[in-house]
Design goal:
The complex is a heterodimer. By secondary structure, chain A is an all-alpha fold. Chain A contains 11 helices and no strands. Chain A has 2 domains: 4-45; 50-286, MetI-like (MetI-like fold), CATH 1.10.3720. Helices cover 77% and strands 1% of the residues of chain B. The N and C termini of chain B lie far apart (51 Å). Classes of the chains: A mainly alpha, B mainly alpha.
């Protein structure tokens, strides 16, 4: 025999669970709706010529060739700057730094604050420092340096987590064999933490790939009618091209914006998939 | 041989110190450039006019630099987006940590991560081409660019962040505490709302503040869906301009260094930087002061 009170509490619990489940289902539906909307609008405009054509005043002739090339250039340089710098900083903080010194503490607090700075503020930094002060102009180089600073905190934090997971017994074993500190780091610590470092870095890079705001701030153009050939060329990237098309009133341009989004999402998803495959491969080797 | 290794080790350590210092340099550079230009700005425009003026027209003549319309627009976006992200994020977290089975969690968490990984430009497109028409079907007086649509998109985008921060905190509550309550006959809902949520309240509060800070700094969604009209309004169905929206809009045109327009962008950027910095520090402060120990 259940008393009325217990029954009421059980009903309440069931209702609560139902409410929570509908929140989760809502999130899933939103994700599906978003993908459906993008594919419905954009899929029919996706073609080989869309990928190989330059942007145009006419929506049916416009393509993403220069934006795609700009994105690839920018992201490649961003990786070259941000990953060594981020992983190096993480190695310093985890393996070398005296955890109690004021210098280490300031760096730690500073990194977590930098992670919360809005991306558009990094754009202003890039504009003032890279574009104007160092006079790199509105180039791929300025854009890549700006994005590198933007994702640096993310890479550092992810790499630190990965480095922390290395068991100290492994390191001590290496030291006991008379191996130097740097050799231990390159031979033992980094191989062990590589899956974590890679996953964190790829996620950070895919964030950089989707950013438009900081690059608009440094003055990346909305219309580029040529393929960039060097890091000092002016450029545009996929997200800016998409923004440019989305903000036009004509429906045809919104259609090709959706097609551009499909290309961007495919790139981002394949990067994430690549991260997972790499992680699994190295994990197997460690076991 | 030994000397050589020692020398190499020394050089490596010192180069790593330089690497680590770059993060400090970044912060210094942000502060110097923002505050430098802003200082120049306030030489020309009175700070009181800037902070209390209700007319924002830096590119029209006569020029007017009252930042309140941008500030109100930004705050509206922050408030309306948190109406979505905070309860739904917290609800998802409670479901994941208290109700969901391991297998369910394994399916739902990647979906939330996927939602979090979609670039904001895509949410902007979704807001303009899907959410706005939907709102206009229900409320036909809604303008094409409006606060509500952008807020909903930002709310959905920040939901996963709230969920994952809250869930991490809830998962750290030891099961012995829950089992104690179950042994007394508590239902899952009672355990969730009377034990888990109160004991993680500081993490939840901190996650909420971070989500609001993210909404304040969000740029592309508002640039696409919220409009470019800096009018002082409290109606979420009207077009506004946020601080970030203004900055993007200005940067799309040519602005020459040293001009008042250039300095205006930096003055607004400084305000944005200070607002988000203060919120992030508050979020960290809440977390540090009330750290729960088991």
């Amino acid at each position: 025999m259940e008393s009325k009170l217990i029954k009421r509490r059980k009903i309440k619990n069931a209702l609560f669970q139902g409410a929570l489940m509908s929140i989760i289902i809502f999130s899933i539906i939103i994700l599906l709706l978003l993908l459906y909307q993008v594919f419905k609008v954009g899929f029919s405009h996706l073609s080989l010529s869309f990928i190989t054509s330059m942007p145009s005043r006419f929506a049916n002739q416009a393509g993403i060739a220069s934006a795609l090339a700009g994105s690839i250039w920018t992201i490649t340089l961003t990786i070259l700057f941000a990953v060594p710098l981020g992983v190096g900083t993480a190695i310093y903080l985890e393996e070398y730094a005296n955890q109690k010194s004021w210098f280490t503490k300031i760096i730690q607090v500073n990194i977590s604050n930098l992670a919360g700075v809005p991306s558009i503020v990094y754009g202003m930094l890039g504009l003032a420092v890279f574009v104007r002060f160092l006079n790199f102009q509105r180039s791929i180089l300025s854009g890549a340096l700006t994005l590198a600073l933007l994702i640096l905190p993310v890479i550092i934090v992810a790499s630190q987590e990965a480095l922390k997971s290395v068991p100290s017994t492994l390191k001590e074993g290496s030291y006991a064999l008379g191996v130097s500190k740097w050799q231990t780091i390159t031979g033992v610590v980094i191989p062990f933490s590589l899956p974590g470092i890679l996953t964190g870095s790829i996620l950070a890079v895919s964030r950089a790939m989707g950013e438009a705001a900081p690059l608009i701030m440094i003055g990346a153009a909305g219309y580029i009618g040529f393929m960039p050939r060097s890091p000092l060329d002016s450029f545009t990237v996929l997200p800016i091209q998409i923004f440019n098309w989305t903000s036009r009133p004509q429906a045809e341009f919104q259609n090709i914006a959706a097609a551009g989004i499909i290309v961007l999402l495919v790139l981002l998803l394949s990067m994430n998939a690549f991260a997972i495959i790499l992680r699994n491969k190295y994990q197997n080797r460690m076991d | 041989m030994k000397k050589k290794i020692k020398k190499r080790e020394f050089i490596i350590e010192k180069s790593l110190v330089i690497f680590a210092s770059i993060t400090i340099l970044t912060t210094l550079a942000i502060i110097l450039t923002l505050f430098g230009e802003t200082f120049q700005f306030f030489k020309e425009i009175s700070i009181i006019d800037f902070l209390t003026g209700t007319k924002w027209a830096p590119t029209l003549s006569p020029q007017s630099f009252g930042v309140l319309p941008l500030l109100v627009g930004t705050i509206m976006i922050a408030i309306f987006s948190s109406i979505i992200s905070l309860p739904l994020g917290l609800g998802s977290a409670i479901y994941l940590s208290e109700y969901a089975k391991k297998r369910t969690r394994k399916i739902i968490k990647p979906i939330l991560e996927l939602l979090a990984g979609i670039p904001s430009i895509v949410y902007g497109f979704f807001a303009l081409t899907f959410i706005t028409p939907l709102i206009r079907q229900v409320l036909p007086q809604t303008q094409v660019f409006n606060v509500a649509s952008a807020s909903i998109a930002i709310g959905i985008m920040t939901l996963p962040m709230v969920a994952s921060l809250c869930e991490d905190a809830m998962m750290a509550v030891p099961n012995s505490v829950r089992n104690g309550a179950y042994a007394l006959g508590a239902t899952k809902m009672e355990v969730a709302l009377k034990i888990v949520v109160p004991s993680t309240s500081s993490s939840i509060a901190s996650a909420f503040v971070l989500a609001i800070s993210r909404a304040v700094g969000e740029t592309m969604i508002v640039a696409i869906a919220a409009g470019q009209s800096p009018v002082l309004t409290f109606n979420p169905l009207e077009s506004i301009q946020t601080m970030t929206g203004f900055m993007v809009n200005m940067s799309l045109g040519e602005i020459s260094q040293g001009s008042i327009e250039y300095k205006t962008v930096f003055a607004v950027g400084t305000m944005l930087f200070l607002m988000t910095l203060i919120m992030n520090l508050i979020a960290k402060g809440i977390l540090h002061r009330n750290k729960e120990r088991y």
